[in-house]
Specification:
By secondary structure, the chain is mainly beta. Helices cover 6% and strands 49% of the residues.
């Protein structure tokens, strides 16, 4: 997992797909519509979404095998947890059609961070994660983007 400011993306030299992703991220505004955006077909695409943050008790960990996630908040802030997938109990085995495995949340994640506008989180296949957690005692509306990059396209 990588957590950094969007403005620091050039510090990472992960190739053309990385550059395309951050060029796309720079076009997003609070007025961007929710939905799917194709950056390079099914190789690189983004999903802009809006939702209310939730309590940790409602959350479950997930991970992906085919795609690396780059998640960035556009409006608001959300809590984020990450754990190593090989240290969690699988509740729903890998579904190749949805590129997702779900895990039991038996305790808080090994890494916890609050993510706000201007930051990004990179999640690799071994990073089980939970996003969309409320930060304080109140839920809030968040608008964020999840960019999906086929893992073989990043020069890491």
């Amino acid at each position: 997992m990588i957590i950094d400011k969007v403005e620091n993306f050039k510090l990472y030299h992960f190739g053309k797909a990385w550059q395309q992703t951050f060029e796309f991220l720079s076009t997003l505004t609070p007025d961007s519509l929710d939905g799917r955006y194709d950056i390079d077909g099914d190789d690189i695409f983004a999903i802009v979404m809006s939702y209310q943050t939730s309590t940790p008790e409602m959350a479950i960990f997930e991970s992906h095998e085919k795609y690396i996630d780059i998640q960035s908040v556009i409006v608001g802030g959300e809590g984020f947890e990450c754990a190593f997938s090989d240290e969690l109990n699988i509740t729903k085995p890998y579904d190749a059609t949805k590129d997702v495995t779900f895990y039991e949340r038996t305790s808080q994640g090994q890494t916890q961070v609050d993510v706000y506008s201007g930051t990004f989180v990179v999640l690799y296949p071994h990073d089980a994660h939970i996003a969309g957690l409320m930060i304080a005692t109140e839920t809030e509306l968040v608008k964020k983007v999840v960019v999906k990059i086929k893992k073989e396209l990043l020069d890491v």
